[in-house]
Amino acid sequence: MAETDAVRPIIELERELRRLEIENRKLEMTNYELMRQIKKLEEEIRKLKKEPLVVGTVEEILPDGKAIVKTSNGGQFLVNSIMNVSSGDRVAMNQQNLAIIKILPAERSRIVRATEVIERPNVSFSDVGGLSDQLNELREVIELPFKNPEKFKEVGIDPPKGVLLYGPPGCGKTLLAKAIARESEATFIRIVGSELVRKYIGEGAKLVRQIFKMARDKAPSIVFIDEIDAIAARRLDETTGGDREVNRTLMQLLAEMDGFDDNEQVKVIGATNRVDILDPAILRPGRFDRLIEIPLPDRKGREEILKIHTRNMKLSRNVSLKEVARLTEGASGADLKAICTEAGMFAIRKGKKSVGMEEFLDAIEKILIFEEEEQAYYT
To answer: CB-based contacts of 187: which residues, under 8 Å, 6+ apart?
Structure first.
């Protein structure tokens, strides 16, 4: 018994020692992690304390390896470089001696985020239904000048520079623009008008200049400005800085449309749902030379559109696209595409391998009738 009493304190001390060792190990790990964070913060502080770099654009490379650089404030400097640079590169320079120490990404990368550039769109004339008259007009003013410019020279007239497509949403304005770009073998550059409305002074106008420069570089090209009313609405008395900035962007757009020559192979197509609010300055001849209305499709047009959207669908024998066209009075091309998709979804839910007339009727009820009831509810 006495021996057991003598051993117990030793056991307790060993347990306490193990506990302290474990706690010490945890503290060491915590200390190590804190040291890492301290080093990271010290590195960030060191970077923050570094002098800011000057941004410029290389204008010319001299034989001795030095470069002439133009900075953002307009000044030109003869500087040294520790790397190989080319004319037109955006570079960062040391603020004290203006030595080039870093090549920056091309400024045009900002355009890529705001635009959709397609070298050859995958939409052809066969994908456009119910707009044969509008398509012929568009071919006259866009495709013909691209492919046969000599015809205009023979007659002694200048080819049109731009076309405005107007009409209700979902009627195929973007589809038409992509189709004419493909058939004209032109680069398609799409920009939404709201993307040109920028926060800071001069940014919107600068973006317009860059887009048209890119269009010239990629000529023949078509600049498609969707929802152009966002920047080209009728100018009123300017009340805010935002209004003035939108007007600056519009002025730059007008200047660009006036500035390029016919031989530059650049055409502008605008699209809007509200032609009534556009500024008269942008509608005058020499800018948008032709205004083409894209209306809701009639019965024949709806049938053509339905044939396009169902050509890859498995249809039952009882499906009558003529009857579907009759039942979809007032539907746009986008509505008809949604009806075809929804009819296919109804067939999938029922476990069918083909789409029947019943599914089309259910889709019409869901897409058109439900939308009408919803609009009536909110109005």
So the answer is: 117, 118, 119, 120, 181, 215, 218, 219, 220, 221, 222
> pLDDT of 149-166, one tens digit each?
888 888 888 888 889 999
How many CA atoms lie less than 13 Å away from 122 in the CB half-sphere?
A: 0
Interatomic CA distance for residues 18 and 374, integer angstroms: 72
Residues 198 and 267 in one domain: yes
pLDDT confidence of residue 2: 54
* Predicted local distance difference test score (pLDDT) of residue 322: 92
Beta bridge partner(s), residue 290? 163
| 309 and 204 Cβ atoms separated by less than 8 Å | no
Contact predicate 328/339, CB 8 Å: yes
Pairwise CA distance, residues 358 & 163, whole Å: 42
Q: Over the stretch 210-242, which tens digit does the pLDDT of each residue have?
A: 888 888 888 888 999 988 888 887 776 555 556
Same domain, 36 and 164: no
| CATH number of the domain bearing residue 150 | 3.40.50.300
CATH number at residue 336: 1.10.8.60
- Residue ranges making up the domain that contains 70: 54-104
In this structure, are residues 336 and 306 in contact, taking their beta carbons and an 8 Å threshold? yes
- pLDDT band, very low/low/confident/very high, at 340 (cuts 50, 70, 90): very high
Q: Where are the alpha helices (DSSP H) in the chain?
A: 2-49, 109-114, 132-138, 144-147, 149-155, 173-183, 203-217, 229-232, 241-259, 280-283, 299-309, 321-327, 333-349, 357-364, 370-378
Under DSSP, is residue 365 helix (H, G, I), strand (E, B) or coil? Answer: helix
Laid out side by side, the sheet with 54-61 consists of 76-79, 67-71, 54-61, 90-93, 100-104
**How many separate domains does the chain show?**
4
Q: Specify the 3-state DSSP secondary structure of 167.
A: coil
3-state secondary structure of 226: strand
pLDDT of residue 374: 46
pLDDT at 338 over 60: yes
